[in-house]
Amino acid sequence: MAQAFDASAQQSLLTARAEEALALAKRLGADAAEVGASVDQGLGVSVRLGEVETVELSRDQGIAVTLYVGQRKGSASSTDASSVSIQAVVEKALAIARYTGEDPASGLADPALMATELPDLKVHHPWALTTDEAIELALACEQAGRDVEGIYQSDGASLSSGEGVRVYANSHGFLGTQKGSRHSLSCMLIAQDAAGMQRDYDYTSARDPQALRDPAEVGREAATRTLRRLGAKRPPTGTFPVLFDPSLAGGLIGHLLGGLAGGALYRQASFLCDRLGTPLFPDWFSLEERPMEIGATASSPFDGEGVQTRNNRFIDQGAIASYMLSSYSARRLGMQTTGNAGGARNVRLNAPLQSRDSLLQEMGRGIWVTELMGQGVNGVTGDYSRGAAGFWVENGKVQYPVEEFTIAGNLERMFAGLVGVGDDTDTRGSVHTGSWLIDAMTVAGD
């Protein structure tokens, strides 16, 4: 990187700025205040056909202040964390707070819930990577994929590496800081046959650069995924079992968490309103978050309001065991925060796992979906309809690739119809899961 990033120095600077903003807010008459500040620096390179396409060095910072005058709330932010800017941001937030309407649910989280356990969760792993080294890794990744017989063209390879610091403080006296890093490498390739061109990709991502997969392996896997899509055709129309690839199964969990989120619940905009304690999945399935997991993608000892994070079990033996609440949404629902201001962290499932081959055998005849298109999910009703691509399966064996079809169902019915979970767990994101086999969905093809 062009400029070294001193995370500890940035941590000290942002801490001082947050304390300065809180003191100023109090002096100007705010009853309560909270401050979030962050700074991030990164390097990104992209290559295509053996040539460098882009090199980007980025540095972003920001400070956001929320003030309360009684139960009136005002917020303002800036990308400049200087003392002059902080003065302007605090004054602006205070002016807004004095003229907004009162909201009985507004205010800081309960002071008794502030985080007191603040361990180092090992999420900061800086990478002393020069621009030339980053380009070399991206080129090696792409070349490994292009060297695979049958690859016609490349859409390029990209490498990104970044680290940052965030600080949250409020007038309860809480101040929490965390340093973090994120690194990734991806490759997208194109193959062609008489039926036309196909495209696919692979990537690796981790907080620790030592945990990234070998660049050549990523390139070759991108080639394998691309070549297996050649000769795709439309599947028959009907009702069939559907196997969701791990990355797509993670999306289904995302829809579940969206339905459990307090913001959707208090607005009566979720298909899971008033369902606490009721069955949703088979009784062998449980789902929880583990925010204090060492080195994981979304680990943090405190949430976006300074509340101590904790393991939360959202689904327990198939039933809805907990909603996902911030202090505000909890007050609107007459409940208590679950430490989820900012979302769920490190979602893990507890279920018996099977091999993909076993799930395909159990499926018999149906579709293994590896790509989804469109945004056809209704969070209010749970109705689900997406464009898809994947593979047709007969007698438990993959027969040929399929594309240009849609799959449709209802999330509640899909969750109840979960037949099995694969052991092919995708660990690249915050949600870890393997493939999901759903017993029946409507397929619109030929």
From TrEMBL:
Q: Which residues form the Metalloprotease TldD/E central domain?
A: 125-230
Instruction: Extract the InterPro entries matched here.
Output: Metalloprtase-TldD/E_C, Metalloprtase-TldD/E_cen_dom, Metalloprtase-TldD/E_N, PmbA, TldD/PmbA_N, TldD/PmbA_sf
| Domain Metalloprotease TldD/E C-terminal per the UniProt entry, residue ranges | 237-445
GO MF entries: metallopeptidase activity
Domain called Metalloprotease TldD/E N-terminal: residue spans: 33-97
GO biological process assignments: proteolysis
Which Gene Ontology terms of cellular component type are present?
cytosol
What family does this belong to? Belongs to the peptidase U62 family.
Q: What is the name of this protein?
A: PmbA protein
What organism is listed for this UniProt entry? Answer: Halovibrio variabilis
